[in-house]
Amino acid sequence: HVNGLAAGSGVRKTHLRVFAPPDVPEIESVTTGISVTKDTPSKVASCETRNGFPKPNITWYRDGEPLMNESGRVNIVILSSRMSSDLYSVQSTLEYKVEKEDKDARFSCEVSFFVPDGIRTIESPSVNITVHYPTTMVELWKESPQGLVKEG
User: Fold this and answer.
1) Does the keyword rRNA-binding feature in the UniProt annotation (predicted)?
2) What is the DSSP secondary structure assignment for residue 38, as one 8-state letter?
């Protein structure tokens, strides 16, 4: 509302948009090993970001490649909450059906959020998981007479 005295007064409305970039994402991997023999996806890691507005999004990556929900292979669970400050916290859990090749894979999460001039992202550090898989090659040695035991 503006009052210009003798010139008169005027009233106009505007829409104020406030953006709050979220905190850096915190990633935590499963510390126990994950077996390749399990039939369903296992929890690999969780990722959390806090204090963002509007609500931020979390994307998971395996070796830099984005992961999407895939029945029987990848399951991403997302929980979001709005705090009393009207800022959002988002937590995501990655469940993944591991294979032997995942023993050297690096998993990470990325938070994307809106700012007045577009979308920004913050990536978490990457984590590695311990993968348990059956032995692929066994050699048996006998002492007497010396030598390898022949298969069969």
Assistant:
1) no
2) -
